[in-house]
TrEMBL record:
Catalytic reaction(s) noted: alpha-D-glucose 1-phosphate + ATP + H(+) = ADP-alpha-D-glucose + diphosphate
InterPro entries according to UniProt: ADP-Glc_PPase, ADP_Glu_pyroP_CS, GlgC_bac, GlmU/GlgC-like_hexapep, NTP_transferase_dom, Nucleotide-diphossugar_trans, Trimer_LpxA-like_sf
Protein name: Glucose-1-phosphate adenylyltransferase
Domain annotation Nucleotidyl transferase: ranges: 14-281
Residues that span the membrane, as ranges: none
Amino acid sequence: MQRQGPLSRDAMAYVLAGGRGSRLKELTDIRAKPAVYFGGKTRIIDFALSNALNSGIRRMGVATQYKAHSLIRHLQRGWGFLRTERNESFDILPASQRTSDSWYEGTADAVFQNIDIIEDYAPLYMVILAGDHIYKMDYEIMLQQHVNSGADVTVGCLEVPRSEASGFGVMHVDETDRITDFVEKPSDPPAIPGQPDMALASMGIYVFTTSFLMEELRRDAETPGSNRDFGGDIIPHIVKHGHAQAHRFSQSCVRSSSEATSYWKDVGTVDAYWQANVDLTTTVPELDLYDRDWPIWTYAETLPPAKFVHNEEGRRGYAVQSLVAGDCIISGTEMSNSLCFTGVRTNSFSRLDQAVILPGCEIGRHAKLTKVVLDRGVRIPDGMIVGEDPELDARRFRRTDSGVVLITQKMIDALEG
């Protein structure tokens, strides 16, 4: 029997976090995409989990697979505060061949292989989430729509220009937003009724009544030829044989007073990752990380404050239009439009502009870095200049077509070897 109160109290959030994220290149050589650092102190997965927590959901599971150690360590350190004695739970669910001799074969299989764990908690609703997007969303609103509409599945959707929708799974809906067709990456995306230039793209967020989802997962597991995937198999089957409802992100997007638009980003390429981080350094960014009404939870290390030293002409430690995390020492360095994660050290006479510096990096003296992403622990040699000679940058490091340069310690070692 359903309790009185928010529906989120009877829901479980299940985060699919096993993706490799190969378009992020070397940033995912040793970590899954959801574990990639973002915004100065968080990881990408913290946004989906924080949305669930802030929405009132107190049961969560995270399915991991690809290079999961960094992700699992982060989850253990940062998300272990949920307690069973308060009817809360947090389960990390690595692919472990629980129901077959294979790893997770698809997104639906990543849930199916843990059916016994889910049923043991007996949530009334399941909120299935992708663990690799940046956004703020109140899932309670989506849960309410799901129950009120009587849908078998409710699909979170973005309103995007039709010209940009070909890279998504696109929903064809009627005037009531009931999904009548689901098309994967169409060349001619169907338009939203009444909005001929816009399309509804799937966010990879699904709400089910748990009992219905379990039936669908068991049916799909017995279907020959299925790819065991929500977007490719489960959702199209429900669209054809049941009731699938679209939920527009604009209805449940969480915005502070400073956020003018609904913010959602897939930081799945080096360019998109760099841009989304650098965007945070603007005076009023599109994404407000300072919103105390909707905090982004993460593992908070015990660290000393950031420090800025030296105040001589040409050797002044300062940061303008930048984010600097704890345990950073900006020593005689000019820093602008940049972002330093924890434990970064910069040395005198260096200059950083539009730089995304991951934890534990060190910048040598007289170095000049422009439009770069440094992976964790990179040591930039004295005098190194990046961002001024495109051909040289492309020979030494990974340079994108738009000029963003990704640097790892292995690349630095190859130059010195």
